[in-house]
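Ticket #4471: structure output looks truncated?

Reporter: J.K.
Steps to reproduce: submitted the chain below (107 residues) through the standard prediction queue, then opened the result file.
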Amino acid sequence: MGFLWRVTKFTARVALVAGAVKLSLDNDVWSLNTVKGSDLYCRLKEYILPGTIVYPQKLPSKEEVLSEAGSSWNSGVDRVFNVIENVPSSTQQVANGIIGKSIIGGK
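Returned output as attached by the reporter:
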């Protein structure tokens, strides 16, 4: 099983690299022809770059991120300490339930 897994991982990696090389060759990325390179760059700007420009506008500001991170951290700390605070009563309830079941079941 270990051998088959290693062969599968290796094959997937080789296929990924081969696919990337094939795609770059098909798009003439390695061409010395400047006209093809300029055409490829224009297509890249037209189809890919606009999507990368739109997303930073939708990102929250630094202050919003810091505020939300702080409140999330604080609520997480509050939950942890509430659980720690309630452990004795929760343990007592569970123990009483187990004892009650064993007494009822034993009769």
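Triage note (M.O.): checked the attachment and the full token line is present. The mean pLDDT is 83.
Status: closed, working as intended.
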